[in-house]
Design a protein that fits this description.
This protein is α/β, with parallel strands linked by helices. The chain is built from 15 helices and 16 strands. The radius of gyration is 21 Å and the shape is globular. The structure holds N-(iminomethyl)-L-glutamic acid and fe (iii) ion. It comes from Paucihalobacter ruber.
C-alpha cells in the first residue's frame, strides 16, 4: 500500500536526520516545508520534498492536500484510557465546592473507579476503551500510553493490563502499557499500606513480568497516596523486571519526587503543577522528560505547570492529555495544544514539538515516531484547509483534523 500526499501547504516537523528530543530554545524551532509532497509506503515515511520534485512518483492512493497542513500524528504519553465509567457525580460535587482531595477522602476518586472496574468484565472494559481509542485516532492521536491503576487487586490490575495489551494488538494506534498498581491505597489496606506495597512487589510485579504485560512502571507519588519511601521501594523492585519509570509527581505537593525519579533514571516525570528550583536542577542533570498535563489543571482548577521555567532552563518538555474520568475526562490532544499555548504560554511551535517528538521521547519511541523523517512510521495528520499551523492551537474547541493516517492506514 502506497500513499502520495500532494500540494501540501505546510509540511511540519521535517527533519532529514533522526532528531529524538528537543530542549529549551530548540523547541521554538519548527521546520516547515511549503508546497510539498509526502510519500508513504506501507507503515513507513519514504520520501518528501518540494512539489517541483514530485514528478514521476506514483502511488496506489493520492491525496490532494491543497490548502492543508500535514504533520506527524500526536504522541499522547500519559493516559488512563481504560476506566469503567464516568465520574460526572464528582464533577457536580466539585462545582458545589468540594476539592479533588476531599472527594477522594470520602471514598470517591480513584477508589470509586476501582470499585466499579472490579465489577466489569474484560470484554466490557475492552469494548468501552476501544470506542474511546477510535475517537482519539480520528482526532489525530497515533501513539498512546495507557496505564492500569483502577484495579488495585492482583486480579483486576492484571485484567486492566490484558485489556490494554488487547488494544495494542487489535488497533492501528501504537500503544505503550504502564503498570500503575500504586495509584491509590485500596480500602482493604487503609491501615496496612505496607501490605499493599508488598502485594505490588511480591505478587503483581512477578506476574506482570511472567506474562510480559507492561513496558513501564508508574507510582502516584503524592501526600495521602505514596510517599518517597513507598515510591522508592516500588521503583527498586521494578528495576529487577526492567520496567523504566514514568511517575506522577508534584500534582498537589512538591516534596522531592522529581529528584527520586531522576535517581532511578525515570523516562518521564508527569504533572509538575508544583515545581521547585531543586526540581529544575535535578532535571538538568538527567535524561528524564518533564511532562505537563494542562487538561488536569483546567478541569480541577489547580495551578498550571510552569512551562516557561522548564523551557527557559534549557530543559525539554512534553504535553499529554492525562485522559481519565476524575481529573481530565478528554483525550483530545488538539485541546491540550490550545491549553499549552493559552495557559502554559508556549508558542505554537513549542506546543507542537511537545505533543509530537517530545511525547514520543517520553515513551522511548522518538527514533520511530514524532517527526517527518525518512524511515519513521507513517503516522500523519492532514488538517482541513487552514491559513497556517498556528490555527491548530488558536481555534480551541474546533476540530480542524480532516484525515489521519495511522500505521499507514487512512482513518
Ligand atoms: O493523573 N493523579 C492521579 N491520577 C490521575 C487521576 C485519576 C483519577 O482521578 O481517577 C491523574 O490526574
Ligand atoms: Fe495521570
Amino acid at each position: 500500500m502506497s500513499i502520495l500526499i500532494t500540494n501540501i501547504k505546510e509540511l511540519l516537523q521535517v527533519y532529514n536526520s533522526n532528531v529524538t528530543i528537543l530542549k529549551g530554545k530548540e523547541m521554538n524551532n519548527l521546520p516547515v516545508l511549503k508546497d510539498a509532497y509526502l510519500y508513504l509506503e506501507n507503515d513507513t515515511i519514504v520520501e518528501y520534498g518540494p512539489m517541483s520534485d514530485c514528478d514521476g512518483i506514483e502511488a496506489e492512493t493520492t491525496i490532494d492536500a491543497s490548502g492543508r497542513v500535514v504533520l506527524p500524528a500526536w504522541c499522547d504519553s500519559h493516559t488512563h484510557l481504560v476506566y469503567p465509567e464516568d465520574r460526572a457525580g464528582e464533577f457536580i460535587d466539585r462545582i458545589n465546592g468540594l476539592t479533588y482531595e476531599e472527594i477522594a477522602k470520602k471514598g470517591g476518586g480513584i477508589l470509586n473507579s476501582a470499585k466499579k472496574l472490579q465489577e466489569k468484565s474484560e470484554e466490557q472494559l475492552y469494548n468501552q476503551a476501544l470506542e474511546r481509542l477510535n475517537k482519539l485516532l480520528k482526532l489525530g492521536t497515533g501513539v498512546i500510553e495507557i496505564k492500569s491503576g483502577y484495579g488495585l487487586t492482583v486480579e483486576s490490575e492484571l485484567k486492566m493490563l490484558r485489556v490494554i495489551q488487547r488494544l495494542k494488538k487489535e488497533t492501528q494506534a501504537f500503544v505503550k502499557v504502564t503498570f500503575l498498581g500504586a495509584h491509590a491505597i485500596p480500602e482493604k489496606f487503609k491501615k496496612n499500606k505496607k501490605g499493599y506495597i508488598d502485594m505490588i512487589i511480591k505478587e503483581m510485579l512477578p506476574k506482570i513480568y511472567e506474562e510480559n504485560l507492561a513496558h513501564y512502571i508508574d507510582v502516584f507519588c503524592e501526600e495521602g497516596y505514596f510517599t518517597l519511601e513507598d515510591t522508592e521501594l516500588i521503583l527498586k523492585a521494578a528495576q529487577k523486571y526492567n520496567l523504566p519509570a514514568k511517575i506522577h509527581v508534584n500534582q498537589f505537593n512538591a516534596f522531592g519526587g522529581v529528584e527520586l525519579a531522576v535517581k532511578y533514571k525515570a523516562l518521564s516525570v508527569d504533572h509538575l503543577e508544583e515545581l521547585t528550583s531543586d526540581d529544575i536542577d535535578a532535571l538538568k542533570k538527567s535524561n528524564t522528560m518533564p511532562v505537563a498535563l494542562p487538561q488536569c489543571s483546567f478541569f480541577l482548577g489547580i495551578p498550571y505547570t510552569n512551562a516557561r521555567a522548564i523551557l527557559d532552563a534549557g530543559l525539554p518538555l512534553a504535553i499529554a492529555s492525562d485522559y481519565n474520568p476524575g481529573s481530565a475526562p478528554s483525550g483530545n490532544m488538539n485541546f491540550v495544544l490550545s491549553l499549552a499555548c493559552i495557559k502554559l504560554k508556549m508558542t505554537p511551535e513549542e506546543a507542537i514539538n511537545a505533543a509530537t517528538i517530545n511525547g514520543a521521547y517520553a515513551l522511548g519511541l522518538s527514533s520511530m515516531y514524532g517527526s517527518i523523517t525518512r524511515g519513521k512510521k507513517a503516522n500523519i495528520i492532514i488538517t482541513k484547509p487552514i491559513s497556517g499551523y498556528q490555527l491548530l492551537p488558536y481555534s480551541f474547541g474546533e476540530n480542524l483534523i480532516d484525515t489521519v493516517i495511522v500505521n499507514g492506514i487512512i482513518h
